[in-house]
Amino acid sequence: APIGCLLRFNSKHIIIKYKFEKNGNQNEVISQKLRDFVLIATDDYPQTKITEELQNQILLTLMSKIDSVKPKKAALCFIGYSIHMGALKISCADLYSKEWLQRVVPSCIPWTGAKLRVIGPEILLKPIRVSVRIPDRILTSKQILSYIALQNKDVDTSGWKVEKAKEEEGGQQLIIVMDESSWAAVMYHKAALYVNHDLVTLERL
Questions:
Q1: What CA–CA distance (Å, rounded) separates 32 from 137?
Q2: What torsion do the CA atoms of 73, 75, 80, 82 make, to the nearest 10 degrees?
Q3: DUF4780 domain spans which residues (predicted)?
Q4: Where are the domains of the chain?
């Protein structure tokens, strides 16, 4: 029978494992290799995409659901999560955990009026890779994305990922992955965006 629960929850990943009794006073942690994942999106995806703030609200709601579960045949085990093309991707250690998550997601209401659903990979927005040269070697990738979001109207960088950053003479070259709707917003500015004190051009690869 389960005697407790280990929970690790931070900005990078969530790991939920249950302790089981073994030989009276010894414990073992049930741990399995990553097997599958579930994609969680808003009901009107891709119009409303999961941001880091919404992600945290969803995870807190799921944690409360998990707290009310009494594992019988198996323990719920989730290993890792991330925002992927505007959806929340949660990795599951086994089929039992995946099926439980798929069942419970539609009943989650992490914020007022929220409607969540599980989607297949084919529904996801297509990833787009772009290259941009930043004439500043001091700025970090996080700072660059923050400047872009603050200085350019309707450009949301919360779902962007810097795939590669390479220092060059007088600056740095970045490879950024974004979704189709983000690229459309960039093209509204004719692919020229303000970053700190500079105007840079993004080139689709």
A1: 42
A2: 70
A3: 38-190
A4: 26-123, 128-204
Strand partners, 131: 175, 203
| pTM of the entire predicted model | 0.67
- 166 and 172 in contact (C-beta within 8 Å)? yes
Helices assigned H by DSSP within 69-140: 95-104
Between 17 and 49, name the one with better pLDDT: 49
- Residue 72 pLDDT: 59
Whole-Å CA distances, 137 to 50, 56, 100, 101, 202: 31, 32, 47, 43, 17
**34 has a pLDDT exceeding 60:** no
Instruction: Give the pLDDT score at 73.
Output: 56
Q: What's the distance, Cα to Cα, between the start and end of the chain in Å?
A: 54
Least confident of 26-30, 150-154, 180-184: 26-30
Q: Is 41 helix (H, G, I), strand (E, B) or coil?
A: strand
In degrees, rounded to 5, the angle at the alpha carbon of residue 78 between the alpha carbons of residues 72 and 84 is 145
Fold observed for domain 26-123 = Alpha-Beta Plaits (3.30.70)
Q: Is-contact 95 141, C-beta < 8 A?
A: no
Residue 205 makes CB contacts below 8 A (sequence gap 6+) with 129, 130, 131, 175
